[in-house]
Amino acid sequence: MTDIGLSAPALRISLAAPADYWALLKPRVMSLVVFTAFVGLWIAPHRGSIVVDAVSILAIAVGAGASGALNQWWDADIDAIMTRTRNRPIPAGRIAPEEALSFGLTLAVGSVLVLGLTGGWLAAGLLAFTIFFYVVVYSMILKRRTVQNIVIGGAAGALPPVVAWAAATGSLAWAPIVLFAIVFVWTPPHFWSLALVRSDDYARAGVPMLPVVAGPDATRAHILAYAVLLLPVGLSPWILGFAGPAYALVAGLGGLAFVALAGLVYRRREGDAARRACRRLFGFSIVHLFALFATLAVERAAAML
């Protein structure tokens, strides 16, 4: 009599909890993506219903989560080395890599199909391109090969307002391109301020982030240059006429504060003072981007009253 237990493949019992699958989506990153997408949709001329808009935003959120899951599947080897990421579900052994891959691909395909059926195929195509760019162009090609990984790869994080605008209108315009530019220019100083603090992690994992390749002083100079560039780019919605005086005030004062904090990062180069300056800029950068987009949304709501 044959012993079936000896010939059958061993079944792996998943140790994953719902919270682990949630962590695969990179919820903190996803929340910022969803917010910028919502503002892109909110300020756009609408052609659909509230239900269509809500489903479109949900599809963009799921697409962003799919990108996070596929990124963690690909980067599991270096995530296991870095202190900041070694407790993620895959390197910690709670989710198998093949589970994460299947989960991410399912979400990616589903989000694109749902957006195509609700927001239109232009928006769906842009969402598919966003996922592809983040997973393939940034994660698989750029991240481990070039110091410009964050600069070029930042395009993926800047595209959601464009996707949402396309979902709302079925077309493109200058306004969503400007929103793209704001997030695109904001991304390098935001990320490099964290990378300065975590440079040892990236060096240990062999990831050529700017502080590892060019050194901390060159990174500080790049952060300051991008902060200065962000000031006029941040003001461009007001300059181009699709934002009002409240936005101009927030963008102007916030942009100057961003430059001032980047200046502190540039000047404070040693010890705890340097690390505090980097963390302060990193935290403020999130507040600044949120304030810019929130003010656009509030002004749009006020104009509708």
UniProtKB/TrEMBL annotation:
<dbReference type="GO" id="GO:0008495">
    <property type="term" value="F:protoheme IX farnesyltransferase activity"/>
</dbReference>
<keyword id="KW-1003">Cell membrane</keyword>
<dbReference type="GO" id="GO:0048034">
    <property type="term" value="P:heme O biosynthetic process"/>
</dbReference>
<feature type="transmembrane region" description="Helical">
    <location>
        <begin position="121"/>
        <end position="142"/>
    </location>
</feature>
<dbReference type="GO" id="GO:0005886">
    <property type="term" value="C:plasma membrane"/>
</dbReference>
<feature type="transmembrane region" description="Helical">
    <location>
        <begin position="218"/>
        <end position="240"/>
    </location>
</feature>
<feature type="transmembrane region" description="Helical">
    <location>
        <begin position="278"/>
        <end position="298"/>
    </location>
</feature>
<feature type="transmembrane region" description="Helical">
    <location>
        <begin position="149"/>
        <end position="168"/>
    </location>
</feature>
<dbReference type="InterPro" id="IPR006369">
    <property type="entry name" value="Protohaem_IX_farnesylTrfase"/>
</dbReference>
<comment type="function">
    <text>Converts heme B (protoheme IX) to heme O by substitution of the vinyl group on carbon 2 of heme B porphyrin ring with a hydroxyethyl farnesyl side group.</text>
</comment>
<dbReference type="InterPro" id="IPR000537">
    <property type="entry name" value="UbiA_prenyltransferase"/>
</dbReference>
<keyword id="KW-1133">Transmembrane helix</keyword>
<feature type="transmembrane region" description="Helical">
    <location>
        <begin position="174"/>
        <end position="197"/>
    </location>
</feature>
<protein>
    <recommendedName>
        <fullName>Protoheme IX farnesyltransferase</fullName>
        <ecNumber>2.5.1.141</ecNumber>
    </recommendedName>
</protein>
<comment type="pathway">
    <text>Porphyrin-containing compound metabolism; heme O biosynthesis; heme O from protoheme: step 1/1.</text>
</comment>
<keyword id="KW-0808">Transferase</keyword>
<feature type="transmembrane region" description="Helical">
    <location>
        <begin position="50"/>
        <end position="74"/>
    </location>
</feature>
<dbReference type="InterPro" id="IPR030470">
    <property type="entry name" value="UbiA_prenylTrfase_CS"/>
</dbReference>
<feature type="transmembrane region" description="Helical">
    <location>
        <begin position="246"/>
        <end position="266"/>
    </location>
</feature>
<feature type="transmembrane region" description="Helical">
    <location>
        <begin position="21"/>
        <end position="44"/>
    </location>
</feature>
<dbReference type="InterPro" id="IPR044878">
    <property type="entry name" value="UbiA_sf"/>
</dbReference>
<comment type="similarity">
    <text>Belongs to the UbiA prenyltransferase family. Protoheme IX farnesyltransferase subfamily.</text>
</comment>
<dbReference type="Pfam" id="PF01040">
    <property type="entry name" value="UbiA"/>
</dbReference>
<keyword id="KW-0350">Heme biosynthesis</keyword>
<keyword id="KW-0812">Transmembrane</keyword>
<keyword id="KW-0472">Membrane</keyword>
